[in-house]
Amino acid sequence: MGRGRGHTPIGRRERATQDKRERIMTAARELFAGHGIGGVTTQQIADRADVAIGTLYRYASTKAELLIMVQNEKFAAAVDDGLAAADAIDGQGVLDPVVALIRPVVACVREQIENGRTYLQELVFGDPAEPYRRAGVALAARLEGGITGLLTREECVDAAEAAKLARVIIAIIHLSTTATMYLDRSDEALLADIRDQIHATLAPCHPAA
């Protein structure tokens, strides 16, 4: 039976490469979730994935990059969930939709505090040219763009002002989810505080927010 036009079968080498990458991702995901990035070594990840340490380094050159690989998947799902939740909210005002958007993001970052803090730190201070960080930064930009879009629903805020306010809200999220003084708060308590800060940020332009 002939192959369909345009169909390129995956060769044995490509399948082996995909299999190794998935095993490495699964091993890193499980170990980071159970012990945090500080409690895991790259050798442990390689052993769990049943690959040589040299093979692991062909996929990610550092433990931080492995964490970013794992967290990017979680972060992408959180942003998707947040955007869907925000779109489902009807009515006036932007505060509730913005909080709905960031709720799953906050939960994602705080699911394992050490991992979340390290992930955000790596995105802010790491090499933006590194592929995994570049993908993470693109996700962060998607989140910021989603917030910007929600803010522009208000007639009193133009696109430029919305972009500035969204940047401030992103800073609020980063500080609130990573600062040591807030680590003992529950997600709901933290979200309530973030909501108050966003309300204060939007108040001059959105009296009804």
Description of the structure:
- This protein is mainly α.
- The chain has two domains: 10-59, Homeodomain-like (Arc Repressor Mutant, subunit A, Orthogonal Bundle), CATH 1.10.10.60; 62-202, Tetracycline Repressor, domain 2, CATH 1.10.357.10.
- It is built from nine helices and no strands.
- The protein has helices at residues 12-35, 42-49, 53-59, 63-87, 95-110, 113-125, 131-151, 159-178, 187-202.
- Helix 4 (63-87) packs parallel to helix 7.
- The protein is elongated.
Short description:
By secondary structure, the protein is an all-alpha fold. It contains 9 helices and no strands.
Chain-wise SSE layout:
Blueprint lengths: L11 H24 L6 H8 L3 H7 L3 H25 L7 H16 L2 H13 L5 H21 L7 H20 L8 H16 L7
Helix pairs in contact: 1-2, 1-4, 4-5, 4-6, 4-7, 5-7, 5-9, 7-8, 8-9
What descriptive keywords fit this protein?
0% strand, Tetracycline Repressor, domain 2, 2 domains, Arc Repressor Mutant, subunit A, 72% helix, mainly alpha, single chain, 209 residues
Q: Any idea what the CATH architecture of the largest domain is?
A: Orthogonal Bundle
Mean pLDDT: 91
Helix-and-strand structural type: mainly alpha
Q: What is the count of helical runs?
A: 9
Order of helices and strands: HHHHHHHHH
Low-confidence stretches: none
First-to-last CA distance: 63 Å
Q: What is the C-alpha radius of gyration, as a whole number of Å?
A: 20 Å
- Shape annotation: elongated
Report the sheet-strand fraction: under 5%
CATH superfamily of the largest domain: Tetracycline Repressor, domain 2
Instruction: Summarize the main sheet.
Output: none
CATH topology (level 3) name of the largest domain: Tetracycline Repressor, domain 2
Give helix % range.
over 70%
Quaternary structure annotation = single chain
Main CATH class of the largest domain: Mainly Alpha
Count structural domains.
Answer: 2
SS elements, strand count: 0
